[in-house]
Amino acid sequence: MKRRSLLAAGVAALALATGGAMADGHEKVKAGFIYVGPIGDGGWNYQHDQGRLAVEAHFGDKVETIYQESVPEGADAERAITQMALQGADIIFTTSFGYMDPTNAVAAKFPDVKFEHATGYKREHPNVATYDARFYEGRAVIGHIAGHMTETNKIGYIASFPIPEVIQGINSAYLHAAKVNPDVEMVVTWVYTWFDPAKEADAARAMISQGVDVIMQHTDSTAPQAAAQEAIAAGERVFTFGQASDMSAFAPKPRIASIIDDWSPYYIKRVGQVIDGTWEQSASWGGMPEGEVVIGEITDEVPAEVKAEAEAMIAAITDGSYHPFTGPINKQDGTPWLAEGEVAEDGELLGMSFYVEGITSEIPN
Amino acid sequence: MIRLEKRPEPSKLWSWATPPLAVILTMIAGGLMFAALGKDPVAAIRTIFWDPIFGEFAFYYRGQLLVKAGPLILIAIGLSLGFRAGIWNIGAEGQYIIGAICGAAVGLAFYPWESFIVFPLMVIAGAIGGLLWAMIPGLLKVKFNTNEILVSLLLVYVAEFILASMALGALRNPDGSGFPGSRNFRSYPAAFNDEIIAGTGMHWGVAAAFIAVIFAYVLLARHQLGFQIKLAGQAPRAARFGGVNPVRLVLFCLGISGALAGLAGLFEVTGPAGQINIDFNVGYGFTAIIVAFLGRLHPVGILLAGLLLALTYIGGEAAQSALGLPAAAIQAFQGMLLFFLLAVDVLTNFRVRFGAGEAA
Question: What chain A residue is nearest to B62 in terms of C-alpha separation?
């Protein structure tokens, strides 16, 4: 009888039936994680999974975590998220930009489940929060190092999708590379994927053959690092930076530093709030001060004075005395964007769709 | 000693018995793999094959089975007609993308006009888009005798680039603050491919898939064209003498498979996917090739094969989050299914003989 009435009323009815589950049944808070790639990618998804493990380690018996990896963005994501909500998850972290609409769609059906969407901007329901990290702070530091390290004056950038988060990174890296080396050129290669080792490696090889000697990436695999390692074995001089994860297996070179995403503080905080019943919708954008963006070990391939400058910049960003987007900065077409001493507003950064002056290529359109 | 002896003609019994046998063998081999990963094999198999249909949340999963199987069946039906005639359209993925783009573009052009006519126009545009994309390998084949396998496959990559350019350019949501992706059709009711009955997963694309199954069945069993298709595949020379026009047949088979793939794309983009985006396509066009063969190129077989493959996807996802199985294990499991199906196919065409050959 119960089954029948549920069938008739569809998912919405079940949402009510399971949504309040924490109150009427299980004691453990169940936290679900949806990953866009494999947790063994050594980058983005690996770091999110480290965050999940940190939640388990921190709360012990009070939480149970579940995850699903390699969930395509789009129609399949909606099912994966729904599935977790049905399985009784109390809070679900959807960790890729493309999960934005599916997350909001599922959230409408499960008003008692909390949803946390990484790197998006839509919070259509009170049970949807968004969170992101200020990766551009890390980009500023590695941009600074890259500007010093390049001899060919060509810095390569393996870019995923032309969304604001990626464009912020390119701009920030370029601004700080050009500050120490005005002749530097940014070679951007768009691969239209977050994780595709073959494509990423191809992009790295192509750029190396064009004379690029420092490579940054906004993709999730270690393939560009491996490609650079091969190039070094063949006698080239190439440097890379670990992305999302430390990628220390490729230190001391080609990997000379890294931007590490540390999601643990945020995940522990939010799951804790679900346990306490104090969770509220929010839009979090933490960076170096919150410990969410961390620069990994700068290896001895980097000259000591450059390393010291980089560390000074990290300290300045962390204590808030320096913002990577501080004027004067012009847009690519030469029109002024930020006046002398002016600092970019978060809203502008979140919608950033233009290059800064000096980058010669165009954002694909 | 075991010998294989070719049957004079494929065994009727085995051609029906091999798919279930393959499923059973997959369960055994997959179970061993899950056990080796330290998971309870019985629980894993039950989560994949039983729970989505009869488990606690079956009311949700059953609908999702249809959502997943719908495009697979729709595309596979179209492909099977060509495959039977020996015309190999490998590029359904590209036709699926182009159909989605054309249909979505028509819908977005009318935004925000709320009229009942919008959705039918989009459906037509989707079918035409897929059809025209399939006509490229079709016309090249009949005019210049190019290989339709290569041309249709390579056009998939062209279609993907067009998709990316549309998501970033012409079809980008003007209110999306610079992010790629079109408007979401969920917020445009006239163009949204909603469930026909709420909560069932039954959207217009699923309905179209069922209709396609019936049409294909009638076409192959009753219609002259169906006879010509079968004849062309089995005996091309006889077909030519029998008055089959090969040019028309190539264009028909590629056209119908392209149109159905385009329809599948249109129904997907306006329904489950919701919007044109860079990574809109997830490989239905390629998986449908497997579905077509798994279903023995028979409309009813394709219907069942589409549902079975959808089940391994849905159940596989459930097993991932419920049991913590890695995604790669699920993919290996799906691979096993296809492997065993092809492996036991040997029984259809060959007789297994034990013992020494008789005066060999």
Answer: A7
